[in-house]
Amino acid sequence: MEKNWKNRNTRSLFKVAAKYTGQASALALLFAGILPLTAQAKDRITVAVYTGPWAVAQKACVLDPFTKATGIETVSEPGTSPVTFTKLRQQKDNPSIDVAWMDAPFSASAWDEGVVEAIDPKAIPNMSNLLEGAVYRTDKKEIYAVGTGYLTYAMLYNPTVVKEPPTSWFDIWKPDYAGRVFAPGPGQALFVPFLMVLNKALGGTNANFEPVMKKFKELKPSSYYDSTGVLQASIQSGEVVMGVTYPSIAWQLADQGVKVAIAYPKEGLPTTEIRLHLVKGTKNKALAEKFINFALQPEPLDCLAEKIFTGPPLKDPKLSEETKKRMPWGANGTAKDLAIPDWREIASVRQRVTDMWNRQVVGR
Amino acid sequence: MSKQDNAAPVGGIAISDRQSFALLGGAVLFMLIFFIGPLLLVLWASFNPQSGGHLANYAAIASDDYYWGVLLSTLKLGFWVTLLSLILGYVIAYYMTFHVKSQFWSRILYVVIVLPLFTSSIVRSFGWIIMLGRNGLINESLLFLHLADKPQQLLYSNGGVIVSLTYVLVPFMILTLSSALQNISASLHEAAHDLGASNLVTFFKVTLPLSVPGVIAGSLIVFTLAISAYVTPSVMSGGRQMVMPSLIYDYYMVQFNFSMGAALSIVLLISTLGLISAYMLLFRHYAAGASQGRVT
Questions:
Q1: pLDDT-derived band of residue A41, with 50, 70 and 90 as boundaries?
Q2: B4 in a domain, yes or no?
Q3: What is the distance between the alpha carbons of residues A98 and A90, in angstroms, rounded to a whole number?
Q4: How many structural domains are present in chain B?
Q5: Is the pTM higher than 0.95?
Q6: Which of A98, A108, A150, A239 could bond A45 through an S-S bridge, CB–CB 3.0 to 4.6 Å?
Q7: In this complex, do A350 and B235 lie within 8 Å of one another by their Cβ atoms?
Q8: Dihedral Cα A13, A16, A21, A25, nearest 10 deg
Q9: Nearest CA-CA distance, residue B113 and chain A, Å
Q10: CATH class given for the domain over A154-268+345-360
């Protein structure tokens, strides 16, 4: 009797479960159909931004003021440049991102892969605020990206341990600092340009990277960082005392009271830019163009410079005295002093250099 | 054929085909879309290399010692992390099961063990940066105890990766072993003691053999998680050690060679499946031998 009761109850439980599973599936399908419609009812664009403090600055300086000024909502899609580039490749036929920020090394590749669209200068009148060098054109004069800030590598050091400020990139090989220096790993945008600068100084060419690989095999590093977050933790904890990174890291740490200083080595500064792209196939092209146009005003670009120390690619930047000293071109320079590398050439050697690095340097 | 014949028995109860389809359908669909689908896409990508024929990636991997070296380092890392987790996990699980009598303290211990799983492995790895650093707790202790005359480089080393990955994965071992140990009846221990067995003999003759299913399950979970871990090795190695997940990431995200990344993923998957099968066969052989031994 009890068994029958149990069986009846369990059977009805299965029936109810099956019924609800069916109903839940139907509801899910219904919502899946309705939600995109309701989402489209409001003006909204998705912007691929960077991560960490960079994303915070992009939101505060560009995304939020844009929404305030236009009423168009923005959705941040955080990711490093390679992650964003990979997303765009995967979403090629049906992108969910409308505008994408990516570093220079991925910009030309994104155009070659057909994931970004030509920007119409008539739709972006604020493009005239930019330096000519910050508007990126193909051989056919199509604009595939616009610059929103320059960045260089410099030598960061702890002045309490490194008494003599470094003057050369090769100072990280000094035996006094063995095991306490750092350099960028392959995940960093300026990894290949940095190796190119060193390789050239060692007599190598872009066809022969052996000199720089041989030199790195002799280095006794603490780490080759891929994440600047991990690097910041190492600097703060005193694990490392000297190495190669963005000056913005030093300024952010200095503002938190960490003892760090910056030196600009004599061999030249590898430089990159953070660039804005219009995603090919975006369903919100007019809104995306509005966003790019908004971002190219002096206020957002100067705001980025104040917060993350990117050099604004403006003809007439208006910066505070303190920020001027922290620009990639130094206190008295201008954007024209920067040596912008040939990113197409860098893209052509990236695979080879990374493979050599992994085989010859990692694990030594 | 009657309706009853068509019905599938579930736990002694018959439900109709339609009901079982409705119940199973969602789960099967989920697995197909989110597990089998991506896996097939990776497999397909691996046979479409940037250059050469369909098998070019696999030929390159097979003929290049570098890839085998990275695979071996990855498996070695998995072995050490599993071994350390097993030793630490067994001691903790044993203590929790047989020595903690109070239910309150038992619950507190479970919470303490599970708690780290609520934070991301990135955060936990950052904790180890502080612990293993030159000015960290471990180096300070070594200097204080005069076991070292200067701070040692513990961070960004192979040892650092093993220690931090063990810390991340040991809760999985403890939870699996605990449930296996809890299934061992206390009367078996009492019987062993009544027959004159010491604690040590009881452990080796009774507890350990009966906890083997937990050891197998825990080891498999920890080993597979260790060899597929990306975040902890990448943070804790400081870019100085290469393991398969880092190499796969590199091919996907740095070199944009999705096809080679996919081929390496498949090689790692097949190697892992092979090793796990061998491991399970070995234990089945051991279990069969043990049971035969008891009979005779």
A1: low
A2: no
A3: 14
A4: 1
A5: no
A6: A98
A7: no
A8: -170
A9: 26
A10: alpha beta
